[in-house]
Amino acid sequence: MIVAESNIDDSSPEILGYAMERLLEAGALDVFFTPIQMKKNRPGVLLTVLCAESDADKFSELMLRETSAFGIRRYTAERRKLRREFATVQTPHGEVTVKIGRLNGQVVQVSPEFESCRELAEQANVPLKAVYAATIRAMPPSLLND
Amino acid sequence: MIVAESNIDDSSPEILGYAMERLLEAGALDVFFTPIQMKKNRPGVLLTVLCAESDADKFSELMLRETSAFGIRRYTAERRKLRREFATVQTPHGEVTVKIGRLNGQVVQVSPEFESCRELAEQANVPLKAVYAATIRAMPPSLLND
Amino acid sequence: MIVAESNIDDSSPEILGYAMERLLEAGALDVFFTPIQMKKNRPGVLLTVLCAESDADKFSELMLRETSAFGIRRYTAERRKLRREFATVQTPHGEVTVKIGRLNGQVVQVSPEFESCRELAEQANVPLKAVYAATIRAMPPSLLND
Amino acid sequence: MIVAESNIDDSSPEILGYAMERLLEAGALDVFFTPIQMKKNRPGVLLTVLCAESDADKFSELMLRETSAFGIRRYTAERRKLRREFATVQTPHGEVTVKIGRLNGQVVQVSPEFESCRELAEQANVPLKAVYAATIRAMPPSLLND
Amino acid sequence: MIVAESNIDDSSPEILGYAMERLLEAGALDVFFTPIQMKKNRPGVLLTVLCAESDADKFSELMLRETSAFGIRRYTAERRKLRREFATVQTPHGEVTVKIGRLNGQVVQVSPEFESCRELAEQANVPLKAVYAATIRAMPPSLLND
Amino acid sequence: MIVAESNIDDSSPEILGYAMERLLEAGALDVFFTPIQMKKNRPGVLLTVLCAESDADKFSELMLRETSAFGIRRYTAERRKLRREFATVQTPHGEVTVKIGRLNGQVVQVSPEFESCRELAEQANVPLKAVYAATIRAMPPSLLND
Predict the structure, then answer these.
(1) Cα C138 to Cα E112: distance, rounded to the nearest angstrom
(2) Are C65 and A130 in contact (CB under 8 A)?
(3) Where are the beta strands (DSSP E) in D2-93?
(4) Which segments of C1-146 does DSSP mark as H helices, in order?
(5) Cβ-defined contact of D127 to F133 (cutoff 8 Å)
(6) In chain D, what residues touch C34 (CB-CB under 8 Å)?
(7) Number of residue pairs across C and D with CB atoms under 8 Å?
(8) How far is CA B73 from CA D109, E141, F100, in A?
(9) Residues B110-140: pLDDT tens digits?
(10) Contact F47, F31 (CB under 8 A)
(11) Which of B48, C102, D5, F41 is deepest in the core (most CB within 10 A)?
């Protein structure tokens, strides 16, 4: 995976919020901002984009075009990922997708999927946290990691 | 409630971490740090202490003694709190205390208590998140807010 | 204006991102997060909601329902605002709305409106910063504050 | 004391770093930035200015003129300050000014003055931390708060 | 390019602000601070220095001398930069230097130079943002990237 | 040294504070949090673990088990460290351990050890900063780096 970064001291937050959306739409694995303190008392922002190695130039160029950056620095990081599966559980509010992560076969992560929970929360007009809790309660024993 | 604050640019993080502990031991309602950027390129820290109005001078003095601050600023904030109750639920890992918050009688918050979950996680050598999930699953219907 | 705040150490970022949206949809004047460092090594979040005084209870309740907060603290702040007007300028990419701020009659703020610029940037497939620059260039002399 | 704040999502860090300098030159008691996370994925900045009550309008106006803000919110905070004195101590690198803070007559703060230490550090070409340490070692017993 | 970093939990913000200046004077490509949360409730600071590979030892040593760090970690990052040119544009406030960035010959960045704008803003006693806007309006069509 | 990182948007601060403790107990060289701003308006946290290369898999697995992470990214950093020694100095409050750092034989770091100072501060009921200052004053000339 490539980690591409740029220290930004000459773009406004409005420009950066939009740049994040464009970078995600273009297929970046992840995009995030870190608050940093730069020279001359500037409250800067570190823009970080994670992408596949084959996409490094594409995303570097997009970073340069959509922000005020004159340069990008990049390095390679190794990824270690859980094997992912998806399941569906039935809650009082409706069906929820659950993302499951396995390490050497063992379930170590069981996460209600955000978009799936958000949809039900809006339909049922209940707090999102209630849909998450309902999902955890509705999980079959085979998915429990406790 | 009193909010007492001081911008710190002359204490090290070691001193501040210790000051947080002392302030909590002395009975502050809450203590927290916010990263701030001060003049002359200083990566400062805002120390905030929440306390009862009758304790304002006690905590201001402790802030002045334990950090490098020469001044404290204080203002009053109104508190709006949920009515709290505690319950106990039985999980596969043992008993967990649960904190319940009610708004006009309705349950709006049901939180596994951290220290209670931490103890079981350490005893059972399972992740803390698993004890939280087990607690949510073990809750009786009367405490559900979904 | 009311400033309503809560220190959050028991909700995940997913829950908080959704809460921001709900609070804005419900009409909050502004909603923002500040990273704070809480006791027991917790990387907490300060949730701040700005609202009209008459809405203080409505938003406090929504904060309690949508996050894990058990309490809200509130204080009153005085607002000092520029008088706002809107104008339209014609750029090579299309029409852009501009927000103008006056202080004692004098123009002190001239800001291309984000949503208006975003729309043109997407249509023309040019960087947002280019639409902002084009808007600044297209402004009539009467709106210049230089 | 007045605390005057504005959430900034439309000024670049360059503009804000300069605004900090202008506000300090104009006599603000303190000026600092806090990183905040605003709507639409914007990495915003909270600009805070502390000033005397009689200066609130002067600094509010300067904040509006030097940044992209359309509004300022203000509230009053009470100050509690140590009584300040200055002393001079003789170090191997030269004379250093020391700021002393007393609480009910007792010394609770003894701080080498930054500008005074910086000057010696530059002249002697030694690290600033070494000048601070030399100053602490050179203090007369009457100033010790241990 | 070398990225050299150190987690600081035992230097005060005053010491760090001065260290930033010394590192920049010594020729670092960039220096910045990131707020981090370290063990034992310490509000630490990550000091990052960017420099040429041939300067890695020089800057590591300066970091060790000017802060409380006992260790530095370093890794190599690849740089991708726009080709830079400078131009001069004539504004109502005077001449401004503009930094231009090209990607495969195409102009993708046109930035008013901070120091050049700051000088005019101070001379004319107008907000810095006004000089930036005047510079954007004064740019010749050949430099436009919209 | 291995730097192992994960962007967390689905664990609460309570879970993360506990994870930091577990990772440190398991022998990580350092563990810290950085506030980051993730997509969908999420106030995320970057968890960073530093460890020996031979421990990379052990700590990656622990990060996956104790947080909600589905993936870890890792890269190698070179370490440059001062040679460390410990000394004991006698202060009015008792004995303090001091950590000394040498670069090419020269003393560049002399740091009172936190745990040693904390113990005396608690016993003597004096501020921690006073014990630090007393330690600096009590150092023998051979350890001075000024």
Answers:
(1) 18
(2) no
(3) 2-8, 30-38, 42-51, 71-76, 78-81, 83-91
(4) 13-25, 56-66, 114-124, 128-138
(5) no
(6) 34-37, 46
(7) 70
(8) 17, 53, 38
(9) 999 999 999 999 999 999 999 999 999 999 8
(10) yes
(11) F41
CA atoms of E57 and E75, how far apart (whole Å): 12
Cα–Cα distance measured from residue E89 to residue C133, given in angstroms and rounded to the nearest whole number: 15
Q: What DSSP element (H or E) covers E24?
A: helix E13-25
Which residue type is seen at E104?
N
Judge whether D70 is closer than 8 Å to chain A, CB to CB.
no
Name every residue whose Cβ is closer than 8 Å to that of residue E7 and which is 6 or more positions away in sequence.
E36, E38, E44, E45, E46, E69, F30, F32
Measured distance CA(E35)–CA(F48) in Å, rounded: 13
> Tens digit of pLDDT for each residue in A10-61?
999 999 999 999 999 999 999 999 999 999 999 999 999 999 999 999 999 9
* Inter-chain CB proximity F80 and E65 less than 8 Å: no
Return left, alpha or beta for E134; rule: phi > 0 is left, psi -120 to 50 is alpha, else beta: alpha
Closest alpha carbon within chain D to A39: D17
Distance CA B18, CA B12 (A): 10
Rg for chain E (alpha carbons), in Å? 20
Return d(Cα C81, Cα C27) in angstroms, integer: 19
Kindly report the nearest CA distance between residue D92 and chain B, in angstroms. 22
Going by C-alpha positions, the residue among A129, D7, B37, D60 that lies closest to residue C50 is D7
β-strand partners of A33: A47, F37
Quote the percentage of chain D above a pLDDT of 90.
Answer: 95
CA A141 → CA A82, A136, D31, D45, distances in Å?
Answer: 20, 11, 56, 46
**Distance (Å, whole) CA B64 – CA A109:** 45
C8 contacts C70 by C-beta, under 8 angstroms:
no
**Partner-chain residue, chosen from E21, E35, E42, that has the shortest CB–CB distance to B14:** E42
Tokens of D10: 């439309």
Q: Spell out, as residue ranges, where chain B has pLDDT lower than 50.
A: 146
The answer to whether D136 contacts F133, with C-beta atoms less than 8 Å apart, is yes
Rg over alpha carbons for chain A, rounded to the nearest Å, is 20
Task: Look at residue A142 and tell me whether its pLDDT is greater than 80.
Answer: no
D contact test, residue of C30, C31, C53, C86 with most D CBs within 10 A: C30
